[in-house]
């Protein structure tokens, strides 16, 4: 039996969209569900290549497409005739795109001299239709010779007609079988030595070639023939060159297919904001969305711990149960192709050995298969083939038959897959199934939230709580007549006191408890906020005190400077004999005591500054995730390296030491968990700001300065152009205010002059 899992989760449709970006038509067939693998080494290798191309795509333009040349291989094996010139031209285009591909990969040296020569020969010799170009160097002298002979023939013809005007039927020569013939009156034929090539229908005009014109016509025909021969020779040489290069071209085709697979996933994932989830035992989707839903997709957060192997999802119809199931399956499958999926980078997924999905109505009229029997046939197949590393997705398990039997069968199926799968997800409306999930170890409930005020689903997943079907509420929203609604509610009667109603009651109590917890949490946050405000005010008071002390120190320094000048004048006076030795000693004593007081004040100021920084500092534990600097570069605390500083390992692999004031915790709030991960900006040796507004340029400079400081780049250049000078002046004003900038100046004339500025940093 065929497992339509990837069709059911719509992986095939997503891959079809990805394949539309392929550069090479032969890659398209390779972009299929067969790419899904469970080998972690293969996935890691693919991810590394895709990530490399993603980074390159941020700096480079899209590449050129590759024409298909595989037809040439078959032709060369089955025929010794020249390869059609239009196909030869495709080889030139293919080599041109291949060269760009290698340059993109930074493997330009792999493009050999033979590749370069063949590419140049083809593209300089042929046009896209396979015709030899008019200005080919080997044709130009032949064409000049042809033009000369045609001109000589034309001059003779014009002279003959002019000199024998009375015998001519008209004053223009005539072309006949690619030769020039002259129209003479039939009665005048005896006057000329010539060959008759034809006559008019009336017989009054003869078309003749005088003997001298015969030679001139022959010369033109021979010149034309030499051009045709040379064209055939050029095409033959190019065909032979391509035929000799075919063994290399076959290898290039394989390289292009491999490159194109990684490139197209890099391009698509980058354009659509996909991320790389961490590999682990948890199943944790953050901000996951089904690509086919586009802007309508509601980001899904869904988490399953390693000790849970079955999840029952319940809730209102059209509430998002099936979409949640498909999104999990799709993200897992895409992750096992190239390491990227439509989710947040903080997500986590294991690798599954196999995927099984029964989603939708499998009823078949041709095979006389009912919905229920179709579902059971698939479940039987899954049960025979699933193992403890399988992902099993079952939509509306047990539906299409008697509810009691359907519930019992669903529970039995769930218990089986609980033991024989890594994770089984089922959607169900059966209360018994939901209750069973409560009582079973390794099995949990989850529900799709339903807003009872608006009577509409919110599409949010709530873990640990089953959901009601809200069938009557949905029917009422769909304007089913009140008479029907009332009878349904009456017939339901005491059944509301069964498991479903108990669960509903528990849900309401849970929500009430959640609200109380939220209120308590809000009060706690408010108290923390007030405490934080008080701390800030205390720090501000200390800071002002410190600034006052600092100002006092400055005044003392100024006083000493002034006093020193006065005392130096006194000493000068002593030397002239105006003061005695005692006064000299007093003066020196005064200077020494004043200088000592200055040193004492400076020590107090420095101590106060250390105390202030300690009060403002936050303690971080080793291994804690943090964000560094104004650019919020992600990293991890290694150890405390000083009183208020820490040693940090950035995600980029770089180690550095920062003050606690430059570090903040990376713990996200619930709202922040929807955000995607932003890679740190890489420092560049030269940035180009031309075409940006001043505001955009300043933001770009902020990123560059932050990256330069973190990476230890001490100098770089800024290209701002000449223009009207607004951008240049704005950048210089910005640099003037940055304390890290030790110097900046215009470039040398040969390196851009006043359109470029060199920047030196003091870091």
> Per DSSP, what share of the residues sits in E-state strands of 2 or more residues?
15-25%
Give helix % range: 40-55%
Q: Could you name the ranges where pLDDT drops below 50 across 5 or more consecutive residues?
A: 362-369, 494-500, 668-680
Helix-strand category: alpha/beta
* Shape verdict: flat
Characterize the biggest β-sheet.
6 strands, mixed
Gyration radius over CA? 43 Å
* Secondary structure tally, helices: 19
Spatial strand arrangement across the major sheet: 10-11-12-8-13-14
Number of strands: 23
Q: What is the mean pLDDT?
A: 81
Tell me the span between the first and last alpha carbons.
67 Å
Fold and architecture overview:
With 763 residues, the chain is α/β, with parallel strands linked by helices. The protein is 50% helix and 16% strand. Strands 10-11-12-8-13-14 form a six-stranded mixed beta sheet, sandwiched between helices. Helix 11 links the parallel strand 10 and strand 11 (390-394). The longest helix has 77 residues, at 499-575. The model is unreliable at 362-369, 494-500 and 668-680 (pLDDT under 50).
Summarize this structure as a short list of keywords or feature phrases.
763 residues, alpha/beta, 6-stranded mixed beta sheet, 5-stranded antiparallel beta sheet, 50% helix, 16% strand, flat
